[in-house]
């Protein structure tokens, strides 16, 4: 992989500090709201932590910002080619995500992810900001949203309010899919260019 393993950690460290300070939250208060330990948050803010999907989605939910505001996606200009092997993988209990692009159009923002649900694994989410869209490319995917469950096959699509509790489960073999997260532009956190100050 040509991207350094620490780059996601470094981007998250800088953006998390800015997002937390812009929201006026201490590390203690963010810890209380996200149910992530203070020591873990301090490690993440120093670039020493090991972020997981669960951690990033929990921070996105509590800070009410898109995932890309924490992971610092690149802007689009001209021809954009993103090679899968050059993107770092953000892993969770059952899912591996590669962030490919953020697309801004008018007052709508889309984040595009290559998503793989590992064989016979389940990924749970308590919910986060935005609307979630998933298109299955290969495999059988069970999607549960707020108590409702559907099974999808190749070519099938599901969309839902991402603030609701939801889960993805691979039925047997691994599932490949495209995940689109959709936000209103006013849900984005406009991160300052100035270095953040840390509150404890």
TrEMBL record:
Q: Which PROSITE patterns match?
A: HTH_CROC1 (PS50943)
**Sorted alphabetically, which InterPro entries does this protein's record hold?**
Cro/C1-type_HTH, Cupin_2, Lambda_DNA-bd_dom_sf, RmlC-like_jellyroll, RmlC_Cupin_sf, TransReg_Diox_bact_type
Is this entry keyworded 4Fe-4S? no
According to the entry, every stretch annotated as the HTH cro/C1-type domain falls at 16-70
Q: Which organism is it from?
A: Streptomyces solicavernae
Protein name, per record? XRE family transcriptional regulator
Mind listing the UniProt keywords for this protein, alphabetically? Answer: DNA-binding
A Pfam family that the UniProt record links to this protein: HTH_3
């Amino acid at each position: 992989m040509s991207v350094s393993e620490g780059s996601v950690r470094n981007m998250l460290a800088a953006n998390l500090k800015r997002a937390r300070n812009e929201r006026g939250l201490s590390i203690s208060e963010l810890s209380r709201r996200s149910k992530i330990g203070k020591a873990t948050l301090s490690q993440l803010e120093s670039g020493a932590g090991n972020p997981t999907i669960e951690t990033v989605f929990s921070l996105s939910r509590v800070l009410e910002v898109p995932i890309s505001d924490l992971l610092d996606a690149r802007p689009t200009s001209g021809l954009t080619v993103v090679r899968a092997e050059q993107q770092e993988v953000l892993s969770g209990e059952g899912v591996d995500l590669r962030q490919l692009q953020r697309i801004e159009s008018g007052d709508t923002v889309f984040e595009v992810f290559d998503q793989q649900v590992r064989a016979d694994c389940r990924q749970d989410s308590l919910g986060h900001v935005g609307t979630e869209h998933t298109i299955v490319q290969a495999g059988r995917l069970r999607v549960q949203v707020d108590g409702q469950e559907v099974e999808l096959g190749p070519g099938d699509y599901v969309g839902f309010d991402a603030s609701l509790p939801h889960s993805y489960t691979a039925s047997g073999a691994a599932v490949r899919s495209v995940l689109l997260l959709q936000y209103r532009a006013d849900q984005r956190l406009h991160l300052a260019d100035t270095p953040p100050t840390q509150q404890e």
